[in-house]
Amino acid sequence: MLDLLAQLPQATFDRPPIDWHALAPELVLLGFGVLVTLVDIVFLERGRAMVSALAGVGLLATVVPLLTLWNEVDTASPRVLFDGAYVVDRYSLVMKIVFVLVGYVVILLSTNYIAEGDYWESEYYGLLLSSIMGMVVMASARDLISIFVALELLSIPAYLLAAWRKRDPRGNEAGIKYYLMGVFASAVMLYGMSLLYGVTGSTLLTDIAVAVADAPQFDAAIALGIVFVVVGFAFKISAVPFHHWAPDTYEGAPTPVAGFLAVASKAAGFVALMNLVFVAFPDRHDVYQPLIWVMAVLSMTVGNLLALRQTNMVRLLAYSGVAQTGFMLAPLTVAGDPGVSDLALSTTVNYLAIYAAMNLGAFAVVIALARKTGSAEIDDLKGAFQYAPGLTVAMTVFLFSLAGIPPIGGWFAKFNVFRSLAGAETTWAYILAVIVAVNSVIALYYYASVARKMWADEAPDGNLAPVHVPPSLVAALAITVAVTLVFGFFPGTVGDFTDVSLLASP
Amino acid sequence: MDDSVAYLILAAVVFSIGAVGLMVRRNPLVMFMCVELMLNAVNLTFVSFGDDLGDLGGQLSVFFVLVVAAAEVVVGLAIIVAIMRRRPRATADDLSALRG
Questions:
Q1: Are the CB atoms for A199 and A211 separated by under 8 Å?
Q2: Which chain A residues are within 8 Å of B68, Cβ to Cβ?
Q3: Residue A410 falls within a domain, yes or no?
Q4: Residue A15 phi/psi, 5° resolution?
Q5: What is the CATH number of the domain that holds B32?
Q6: Distances from the Cα of A22 to the Cαs of A71, A73, A79, A156, A220, in angstroms?
Q7: pLDDT at A501
């Protein structure tokens, strides 16, 4: 240790060159996050009306540098910062745009919900922006430390958002369960990272990839490190058997936050997982593929079977989200196969984008109908077609998309899952494809039964007064319906934007 | 090398104590302390590997883990205080309004 410190004075410090354009989206987001917090401190109650609009503008402003970067970063030349610890390529830009737009829709969902509840508003939007900031950083993180910092930047505000209803015991319970599970997962993941660092001598993902490929003598430590890191992120994406927090947290948290956790937080976990699988351990598929295979099978089966029994729509969406996690994990089980690894990457990214639109849309309809019924019980949705035909049609689109019925978005996502599994041409991949098919049928049953109740049954209390849907919710529904349909009818929209070999090059 | 192996074993033991403690203890505050044990085991692992490798990266990682853990403590204690205000002496088993 002393030897190390003795070397320090001799080392001269050169300020690393910083590519400001590549960092512009993060800086814009940071600027608006600070602004929202300052408005809260300075104007207090008078700032209430301003903050949600300000946060929305901030997220839309972030899209501008993302689009200018998209033109500059073509598929052949990613922008590499900080010696490879931070990479801006097309893959990361796609994910950043998804995160920012999801954040915008969540703000549209929150505006009336938070303003009408007994909440302090300004902090809510500041926390939401910093959580989205963490996700945007995660998309570019190519170093164990930056992945860890991004994960905590997105998780810590999310713990507070989940416990936002602080006077409600269910809100407290949602918060503490999410918090304890989250920090436990981070600790497990960090222990895995420390093992990987010890074996490879570096925290840079590209260096780790080289070291784990030709260091068979450390096999046990490498395997343990990879397993711990993957398990740490399995909590974040609520894969079985690490899903217990999800239904309780979604139910106890404010519904827009539940949508945020179900979509954005899960997508961030997948992004981290993909960074690790494709950049750090491409030659270690012998370790991670069986692990992910088991988690994928358990997630879809257990998630679907538990979803069948739910009587609350938010809990049903939570368990259906667990099942969807299984579908999204399926392509990663063949990620190490050189023939289909490109397809596996773009399948998972496509699925995440489509899942974000259709699942947020379903949450939007639940929020809109709860304005009239005051609950998220499935039986209270009965007869919704009689008084809210537009919302019922939108919900049907989202449910059928989640079930994977052509030609709606979810169908294309699932079709690609089958395509990458079939392309791998291994027995395990074929078995998984069969399990995916069986689970799609089970899922169709509970999605369709919700739709049937909304269309065919009578409203339970005979109250047919129309639902008043505020403009922000209409906008959120319009965006999510449009995206869900566009992905289904024009599947090429988010087709081939990058390939794995570019992702892996520093 | 022998020294660092001893530290690594110690870290693994501390990590296991934390992980088991989190699963068997029911007081949210104690569960929370167990997480801190696990994080400190991680720090010990980073430091001993860093020393072993002659690389500053391990020591550097500890700063990030410490700072982030401090931020986590603030949030965790806030949530725990919110619960304890409403229901003194709550255990994790009492927090079961949500189940299904």
A1: yes
A2: 148-149, 152
A3: yes
A4: -65, 125
A5: 1.10.287.3510
A6: 12, 9, 7, 25, 38
A7: 47
Residue type at A57? Answer: V
Are the CB atoms for A162 and A249 separated by under 8 Å? yes
Q: Which two tokens stand for residue A51?
A: 């903050």
B87 lies in which domain range? 3-99
Q: What percent of chain A is predicted at pLDDT more than 90? A: 14
**Nearest CA among A102, A80, A101, A99 for reference residue A89:** A80
**For residue A318, pLDDT beyond 50:** yes
CB A149, CB A167: distance < 8 Å:
no
C-alpha closest to that of A382 among A461, A468, A318: A461
Amino acid at B76: G
Give me the domain span that covers residue A324: 21-497
Work out the angle at residue B64's Cα, subtended by the Cα atoms of residues B63 and B66, and round it to the nearest 5 degrees: 65
Read off the tokens for A461. Answer: 């209390």
Q: CB A149 to CB B68 under 8 A?
A: yes
Q: Within a domain: residue A7?
A: no
Number of domains forming the structure of chain A: 1
Q: Distance (Å) from the C-alpha of residue B30 to the closest C-alpha of chain A?
A: 11
- Determine, yes or no, domain membership for A1: no
| A107 occurs within a structural domain | yes
Helix, coil or strand: residue A81: strand
pLDDT per position as a tens digit, A75-115? 667 777 777 788 888 788 888 888 999 999 999 888 877 77
Specify the 3-state DSSP secondary structure of A143: strand
Which residues in chain B come in under a pLDDT of 50? 100
Q: Which amino acid is at A91?
A: Y
Number of domains, chain B = 1
**Within 10 A of A31 (CB to CB), how many other CB atoms are there?**
14
Integer Cα distance of A392 and A259 in angstroms: 19
SS (H, E, C) A222-281: HHHHHHHHHHHHHHHCCCCCCCCHHHHHHHHCCHHHHHHHHHHHHHHHHHHHHHHHHHHC
Q: Report ipTM (2 d.p.).
A: 0.89
Please tell me the distance from the alpha carbon of residue A350 to that of residue A356, in angstroms, as a whole number: 10
Query: Amino acid identity, residue A1?
Result: M
The answer to whether A319 touches A247, Cβ cutoff 8 Å, is yes
Q: Which residues of A touch B61 (CB under 8 A)?
A: 144-145, 193-194, 197, 203
The whole model's pTM is what? 0.89
**The tokens of A120 are what?**
């302090």
**Residue A421: other Cβ atoms inside 10 A:** 27
- Name the B residues in 10-69 with CB < 8 Å from any A CB: 15, 18-19, 22, 28, 31-32, 35, 38-39, 41-42, 45-46, 49-61, 64-65, 68
Provide DSSP, A167-234: TSHHHHHHHHHHHHHHHHHHHHHHHHHHHHHHHHS--BHHHHHHHHHT-GGGHHHHHHHHHHHHHHHH
Distance from CA of A482 to the nearest CA of B (A): 34
